[in-house]
Amino acid sequence: MESNKHFVLGIYDDEDVLLSAVRKVKESGVKIHEVYTPFPVHGLDEELGYKRTRLPIVAFLFGLLGTTLALTMQIWMLGYDWPMIIGGKNFASLPPFIPVTFELTVLLSALGMVGTFMITSNLKPYGKPRLMDKRCTDDKHVMAIDLAKNDLSQEDIRSIIGNSGAQEVNLKDF
Amino acid sequence: MTEERFSFTAGAKKTLVILGIVGVVLFVLGTVLSMSGGHGHEAHGEHEETALNAQESASLLASADAQDEGSAHAEEHGEAEAHEAGHGEHHESAYWLKRIYSNLWVNNVYFTGLAIIGLFFVAVQYVAQAGWSVGFLRVSLSLANWIPIAGILMFVSWWLVRYDVFHWTHASLYGPGGDEILQGKAPLWFWPMESGSALPLFYIVRMVLFFALWYMLFVWIKKEIFAEDINGGVDHWRKTRKYSVIFLVIFGFSSSVGAWDWVMSIDPHWFSTLFGWYVFASWWINGLAVIALITVVLKQNGYLSIVNANHLHDIGKFIFGFSIFWTYVWFAQFLLQYYANMPEETVYFLQRLEVGNYTWVFYLNLILNFVLPFLLLMTRDAKRHMSLIKVVCPIIIAGHWFDFYLMITPGVMKLEGGFGFMEIGMLMIFGVAFLFVALTSLAKAPLYPKNHPFLEESLHHHI
């Protein structure tokens, strides 16, 4: 199979070394593709200069959709399509609709958030997640550098990563 | 860590005193207005309209009752007759005095809650072995200094306000031809005395006992916390934790019973099994808002540099989450009674929704305590920035005052409750006194516990 993506991987086993390595590598002008860690490393997001995730906005919008859907559904069903007298209440009365509205808001918000996260993280069904190194799910931190996005030669990048405290420097093709 | 001390400056004291004087002036003005203005629409200006509303609402209430022909209506009739037939040992106080009493009781309950939540927050942090909150634990603890004063105020004023605020204290309700429901409930208040006696022993003993226990544990916890500053080590922390566990067990029970005694028994025919939780939720979220607000104000005055955006974020989450919790409890109480539609239960909400004087408070309550905190504190940034905390906390603090106002006033004042200078003035007087006590005690000791075993964890708190 023809491979068209080439990554240089630095393998680290200590998060403090990793944090300083990220700083060093960035200072030497190398663009980091991504860092994979087996657990959340505090301060890594800031070091990598990540923007805040926009997932909360997705959650809010899906929640709003749930609220609207639930209210419209109930008011239309019980108020117009098939009015029924329940407990002497008005056909379309708000308080009894609140629990369903709440549930649908939470449900759609949660499902929408999980779905969005999976799609953006390439975890969709039949999608093939790009696993740089299996050990990043166990006990090693993996820093990946996309060769196509850097002007430096592979040798230079390998030496920069090697000098930053990495235990191993590997090449991974996809 | 170096010590940091809060100095309660003369300038701050002066501001508080001025606020207190403004409060007194407003209170006196409100009292005079309600003396001369007749029945309670003085602060409104639209006399006739409000009066009309009250009349309409009264007839609405009556017709709702008549339609249902439920027991509540019959009960009220029986009660009224019993009143007339009674020995007339007590006449209702004048309108303005009654309004002062009602007001006094609202503030008693409100500030008692604030004080006890100060201790509750500390106890929860110790029992959970939490590290994040160490920086502002003493802000929370300082609120609890109001406990003894709240106890004395409540105990003394109870004897003053009882016939006006607590309907069940009237002796004429008991005995042959009396109120059946209240006769059934009488032992809860009067045991072991005779029903309708002038001394509701069980009730009074509970009140004294709760405040005594709270105060005792507060003194013990405070002693250990301050001894830690001098001696260091983890022994004091362990002891504080032990007392905190004892306190939480006592508080879990006493806060509920206190809520029934001091708030729910104002509407003695009505009951809600959720009421203890409802009052607790209101107290708790209000306490959190006050703790957060004082912390932020201290920070902006150059104190508490060890508290940063991460700590604010966590307390912001607490405020956000418990605002929703309060709403959940409010709604659970409302929905069940709304759906079951039993007259003796719905009368409580009818009084609050259909009487013109309270309708706006009913909706304002939901807007201030749910809609605004929910929308304003939703994002991460909102919880991390002091400016927004400073906007949301006062909203919640005012909102929960209205919550207690709505729990107590309609039961006391019936159709005539009002909101005006008197209410604002009394709230300011109480608030200033409360802050004086809290800030004075805050200035007496270092602002944060330098030997707390979790201080280091708090410094590195990062979310």
UniProtKB/TrEMBL annotation, chain A:
Pfam families per the UniProt record, alphabetical: ActD (PF11821)
Keyword rRNA processing in record: no
Transmembrane segments: 57-77, 97-120
UniProt entry keywords in alphabetical sequence: Membrane, Transmembrane, Transmembrane helix
PANTHER family found in the cross-reference section: LIPOPROTEIN-RELATED, QUINOL:CYTOCHROME C OXIDOREDUCTASE MEMBRANE PROTEIN
Protein's name in the database: DUF3341 domain-containing protein
Species in which this protein is naturally found: Fulvivirga sediminis
UniProtKB/TrEMBL annotation, chain B:
Membrane-crossing residue ranges in chain numbering: 15-35, 109-128, 140-161, 201-221, 242-263, 275-298, 318-340, 360-379, 391-408, 420-443
Domain of life: Bacteria
Key word Membrane present: yes
Keywords, alphabetical: Membrane, Transmembrane, Transmembrane helix
Protein's name according to its UniProt entry: Quinol:cytochrome C oxidoreductase
